[in-house]
Amino acid sequence: MATSFMRTCRSLANDSSRYALIIWGLVAALLLAWLGWLSFASVTTYELSTSARLEVAQAAHPIAALLPAKIQSTSVRLGRQVKAGEVLVEFDASSERLRLAEEEARLEAIPPQLQALEKQLADEQKAAEQAQRVTASAVEHARARYQEALATANFADENVRRLSQLSASGRVAEIEQLRARAEAVKARSAADALSFEIKRLEADAYGKASERSASLEALRRQVAELKGASELTKAAIARLRQDIEKHIIRAPVDGVIGEAPQLDVGAFVDEGGVLGSVVPSGNLRVVAEFVPEQVMGRVVPGQAARMRLDGFPWAQFGTLALKVERMASEIRGGRIRVELTPEPGQDPRLLQHGLPGSVEVAVERTTPLVLALRAAGQRMSRPAQMGQARESTS
Questions:
Q1: Is the C-alpha dihedral spanning 259, 262, 263, 264 positive or negative?
Q2: How much helix, strand and coil, in percent to the nearest 5, is found in the chain?
Q3: Which residues contact 370 (CB under 8 A, 6 or more apart)?
C-alpha cells in the first residue's frame, strides 16, 4: 500500500510540473506577443465630432422683404427648383405704378414742347440775324448819303469863299454871293441831318438787338428748363421703377427653395421679414465643429475622414468617405470649424443639403504603447491642472 501511494504521488507531481510549464510557456508567449503588438503594431487615431452637417459650398440665400408691404402674388413653395432672376414674391405697388404712369405721361409731353421752343428759338435767331443785316445795310446807306451831303456842303463852302473874293473885286454881284451862302448852309444842314440819321439808326439797331437778345435768352431759358424737367422726370421714373422693383423679390441664384413659411396672398409682411431661403445648386461639403485642443496642430488638409449620418443607419447605408479641405484658425463658441469634401462615387441618397451626423477624422497612425503612455500622461496631468485652477480662482 505504501509503495502504491508513493508511486501515485510521484506521478501527480510529474504531471503537475509538466502542465505548469506548458501554462507558463503559453502565458509567456502571450505576454511577448502582447508586448510586441503594443510596441510595434500600427493603429489609426480618430478625432470625433458629433456636430456636423452636409451643406452646399455656397451659403443659403434668404428671401427677405425690403420694405413693409402686402403680398400680391407668391410662388414660394418648399422644394421648388428656381432659376436666378425668377420672380418669387410680388408685393402690392399700385400707388408707385400710378405715380410712374404720371411721370411717364409728363415725360412724353416734354419733347413736343421742347421741339416747338427750339424751332421758335431758331426762327428768332434767323430773324435777329436778318434784322441785323438790314439795319447794317441801312446804316451803310445813310453813311454813303452823309458822305455825299458832306461833299456837297464842302463844295458849297468853297464856292462861297471864291464868290466872296470875286464880290470884293466887283466881278460878281452880291446877290450871287448871298445865294451861294444860302446853298452852303442848306448843304451843311442836310449833311448834319444825315449824321443824326446815322446815330438814330445805330441806336434803334442797338435797342432792337437788345430786345431780340432778351427774347432769345428767355427762349433759351425755357428750353433749359424743359430739358431740366425732362432729366428730373427721368430720374423720378428711374426711382419709381427702383421702388417698384423693391416690391418684387427674385431668386438670387439657381437652386432649391429650402425654407418656405406659410404666407398667403394678402398677408402683410414687415420690412426684413423672411419669406424663405434658396439653397444654391453646387458641390456639397461637410462642416464639423471640433474641440480645439483635440484637432489644432493635428488636423491638416488632405487627411481622410468619414461621416455617419443620423438619418441613415451606417450598418445599412454605410458612411461617407471625406477628405479634410480646410480648418479655421479662429475659435468661436469654444469650437473650431473644419470643412471636409466628400470623395467621388458616393451614394447620391446620402448627399443632401442639411443632413446632420458625426465625423471621424484620421489624425495619425501610431503604436498602442504611445497611446497608452499619452493617456497615462493626460490622466496624471489632470490633478495638477485642477489644483492650478483652484489656486487661480481662490
A1: positive
A2: 55, 25, 20
A3: none
Long-range contacts made by residues 326-331, C-beta under 8 angstroms, separation at least 24? 326/301, 327/295, 327/299, 327/300, 327/301, 331/292
* Overall fold of domain 96-246: Helix Hairpins (1.10.287)
Predicted TM-score of the model (pTM): 0.53
pLDDT in tens, 86-133: 888 888 888 889 999 999 999 999 899 989 888 988 888 888 888 888
DSSP string for 335-376? BEEEEEEEPSS--GGG--TT-EEEEEEEEEEE-HHHHHHHHH
- In 3D space, the residue among 203, 217, 197, 208 whose CA is nearest the CA of residue 131 turns out to be 208
Partners of 56 in the β-ladder: 284
| 276 Rama sector, left if φ>0, alpha if ψ -120 to 50, beta otherwise | left
Q: Domain map of the chain by residue range?
A: 41-57+282-388, 62-92+247-277, 96-246
- Pairing between β-strand 336-342 and β-strand 356-366 as defined by DSSP bridges: unpaired
Q: From residue 197, how far is each of 25, 66, 150, 185, 378 by CA, in Å?
A: 151, 77, 14, 18, 122
Which homologous superfamily is 41-57+282-388 in? Efflux pump adaptor protein, beta barrel domain (2.40.30.170)
C-alpha cell at 199: 446815330
pLDDT of residue 239: 93
> Is 265 in contact with 319 (CB distance < 8 Å)?
no
Name the CATH code of domain 62-92+247-277 (choices 3.40.50.300, 2.40.50.100, 3.90.1200.10, 3.30.450.20).
2.40.50.100
Structural element, H or E, at residue 248: strand 248-250
What's the pLDDT score for residue 121? 85
Which pLDDT does position 98 carry in this prediction? 92
Strands in 61-64's sheet, in edge-to-edge order, are 61-64, 274-280, 255-259, 81-82
Backbone torsions φ then ψ of 363, nearest 5 degrees: -90, -30
